[in-house]
Design goal:
The complex is a heterodimer of chains A (about 250) and B (about 250). With about 250 residues, chain A is of the alpha/beta class. Chain A has helices at about 15-30, 40-50, 65-80, 105-135, 155-175, 190-195, 200-210, 220-230; strands spanning about 10, 30-35, 55-60, 85-90, 135-140, 180-185, 240-245. Chain B is globular, with a radius of gyration of 17 Å. The chains are: A alpha/beta (about 250), B alpha/beta (about 250).
Chain lengths: ~250, ~250
């Protein structure tokens, strides 16, 4: 008996590490999963892995900043799976380090578009389907940098702070529709993206110093487990919350 | 001897209720003030009021969401007054009530452009002047709705959450340039904007005062008091923080 039996999930950025782990876990726990990403081959792999493990998944290429594309992707999900009740919004990227005064406007706009406006666009199309389904759970991936500042990432910080509040806005406006919305704030997680920007894991651990209390980075599966809780009926009284998953990084 | 003697400041939305009070207070404390707004009549009135009290102010008409206008406005201020050290970012759009699912994308985008991209643009062009001046202070106006939720304000809330984080980003990246950045989170303040959807202030008070432990709503001067403190040397150990001025609204 899976914790998401009978549910249908829409997972963005699921060609990537965190959302990929989440999509796989959702599939394992009985949800039908529409895996969405801007890179087709990565997301096809995720869907294929879910199906190979006995789950039920489809893959779609989609740019979350494209309103029409998202509308189509959500409609296809409902056509294929009959309903929609879970949404995991993870499409995100960080600008390369820039001090604010040296940041080109285009770079700022693009980070805001993908990380914040993209979440708004996905939410506006999944919400009506959740209303039809009788309720749902929206899980938006913010960041510890939506709570504390990060060096030389002004657009990422602003966008992730915006995500935190967008989740609360949805939670307040759609509670009567039995739709819950929460944010996850991951600390530093070991992903290929992180490794691509740094010489080694050890270098990342050393850079964060005494704030990485467990002296290790988090795993994508640890974020997926939090998402599973929020997607499930176990979280029925949890809405508008910030789930900080950072091994006490921001508590210090 | 004023709290801000000898300082040069730029205040956006200075034709409005809150920022108008801030501009007047800064001038009363000895600062020269560039009053910026998109509305010519109201900002000229602020300048007239300041000059009547013996203060020094100029008016600039500027749409903060335009990079060209933001850059020109900031550079001209520094040129006219010889330097620029204090910036109050208060420009904020006032959009009609919407939930995420019924909000047109154009409305979302406009709120983002004014409330957060505009703040980025003013900051981007002010920072080099603050560096030349040997230091500076950003006072960015967020909102209690950058921390907790309220119905039907998804874009406003997302941007006010982003403002808090952008402020922390600036605080972190420019601390070594002696630039401090703090957010003010006002609660319900009695200005024209509060009357946008309610016919009289009495009706607003009826609804809102019970939510405020202090037993009244705020006045623009309450925010001006906090802004003057944050702009002055009295707050020299404060940076990257959120100053709630809300009569206890978020404390309960």
């Amino acid at each position: 008996m899976g914790r998401l039996d009978g549910k249908v999930a829409f997972v963005t950025a699921s060609g990537g590490a965190i959302a990929g782990a989440t999509a796989r876990l959702f599939g394992k726990e009985g949800a039908a999963v529409c895996c969405v990403d801007i890179v087709e081959e990565n997301v096809k792999q995720t869907a294929s892995d879910i199906n190979a493990a006995g789950g039920n998944a489809m893959a779609l290429k989609c740019d979350v900043t494209d309103d029409d594309a998202v509308k189509t992707a959500v409609k296809k999900t409902v056509t294929e799976f009959g309903k929609l009740n879970v949404c995991f919004n993870a499409a995100a990227y960080s600008e390369k380090r820039h001090r604010l005064a040296e940041m080109p406007l285009d770079m700022w706009k693009n980070v805001i578009d993908v990380n914040l406006t993209g979440m708004f666009i996905v939410a506006r199309h999944v919400i009506p389907e959740m209303q039809t389904t009788g309720g749902g759970s929206i899980i938006n991936v913010s960041s510890i940098y939506g709570v504390v500042g990060a060096k030389e990432r002004p657009a990422y910080c602003a966008a992730k702070g915006g995500v935190r509040m967008l989740s609360k806005s949805i939670a307040v406006d759609y509670a009567a529709d039995n739709i819950r919305a929460n944010s996850i704030m991951p600390g530093p997680i070991e992903t290929p993206r992180l490794l691509a920007r740094n010489p080694s894991i050890e270098a990342v651990i050393e850079r964060h110093g005494t704030r990485l209390h467990q002296k290790r980075l988090g795993k994508p599966e640890e974020i997926a487990q939090t998402a599973l809780f929020l997607a499930s009926d176990d979280a029925s009284f949890t809405s508008g919350a910030d789930m900080v998953v950072d091994a006490a990084y921001t508590a210090f | 001897m004023g709290l801000l003697d000898g300082k040069v400041s730029l205040v956006t939305a200075a034709g409005g209720g809150i920022a108008g009070a801030i501009a007047r207070r800064f001038a009363a404390e000895g600062a020269k003030v560039c009053c910026v707004d998109i509305n010519e009549n109201t900002v000229n009135q602020t300048v007239t009021d300041i000059e009547k009290e013996g203060g020094t102010a100029i008016a600039k008409i500027c749409n903060v969401a335009s990079e060209t206008e933001a850059k020109t406005c900031v550079n001209e201020t520094a040129s006219i007054f010889g330097k620029l050290e204090v910036v109050v970012n208060a420009a904020a759009a006032s959009e009609p009530l919407h939930t995420v699912a019924d909000m047109p994308i154009e409305v979302w985008q406009e709120v983002l452009d004014v409330n957060i991209t505009g703040m980025f643009l003013i900051a981007k062009h002010a920072i080099p002047h603050m560096q030349v001046a040997g230091g500076g202070q950003f006072i960015n106006i967020s909102s209690t709705f950058g921390h907790i939720a309220w119905p039907q304000r998804p874009a406003y809330m997302a941007t006010k959450g982003a403002v808090r984080q952008l402020t922390k980003s600036i605080a972190l990246d420019f601390a070594s340039d002696n630039i401090r950045a703090n957010s003010i989170l006002p609660g319900a303040i009695e200005t024209n904007r509060l009357l946008a959807r309610t016919p009289t202030m009495e009706k607003v008070r009826e609804r809102m005062v019970p939510l405020h432990p202090i037993g009244r709503l705020g006045q623009p001067e309450d925010i001006a008091n906090a802004a003057a403190f944050l702009a002055s040397d009295q707050s020299s150990f404060m940076t990257g923080t959120d100053v709630f001025v809300d009569g206890g609204f978020t404390a309960i």
